[in-house]
Amino acid sequence: MSSVYNRSHRPKFMFSTQSIVLANLGWSTLVLLYFILFSARIPGSDSIERRGDCYVTGTYIFEGIADLSADVLCLINWRSPQIVSGRDVWLAIDIGMVCYFIGGIFFGYTKIVLKEELIVSLGDVFFVITYLLLGMGMILAVASRERNLERWQWLIALAIGAFGSGLAWLSHQPQATVQDQTPTRVESIAPILNCFSIVSDVLLLMIATTLLLAFWDATVPMSWRMIAATAFSLFIADMWFKYATNWIPNYQTGEILEGFWVWS
Description:
Elements: H1 3-9, H2 12-15, H3 17-37, E1 42-43, E2 49-50, H4 53-79, H5 87-113, H6 122-145, H7 151-171, H8 185-215, H9 222-247, H10 259-263
Antiparallel strand pairs: 1-2
């Protein structure tokens, strides 16, 4: 955000670039310490070690506050006539972050309150919308600059896409089918949503790489470097969660790699 924008819209002590950066660094540090210090497993009545409900709730609180903060900042950018990258870009990202926040609420509610492992929940609908809007916002950002990437830059984007596809394939475990058992409507939708999220993660990774390369030598590249880092962080957290739930028996949420959701 430019200094003109800071002076004309909000007091510097609240929304200046320095205060925003310091707040995010502080929050990221708290998240790291929280995951390291309080993620110990506690033996339960069934002799199975689990993390406490308070700890799991705390991870969702950290993520929810981070999502809301990102939403507020994107909303401020959308309302600013001085914004460099175009207001439609930030509107798409802003609505996407709102949907991500709502999806996280549904996801946390089923995990913490209902203590259920739903194959498909209403939160998945909001996550799908998030992927679509974030992708649209990033594509609009690249298109607005009218920058043509060099051949080597396209090769880097394709290589990262191939690498991401490989990780996605390793994290994915095909669902076992049971003979003489007809899957329910929800069970038939689950593989489609899973495939959509994997493809979306890889595409966002490629778009973020393209965005990073397109804005690298621009006059205002830092915000878009952070947006690209967001996509990379989201990819790491999503891939870890898919791998853990598919390959680790009785996996319980709360591992430190899930902190990348908050950092994104």
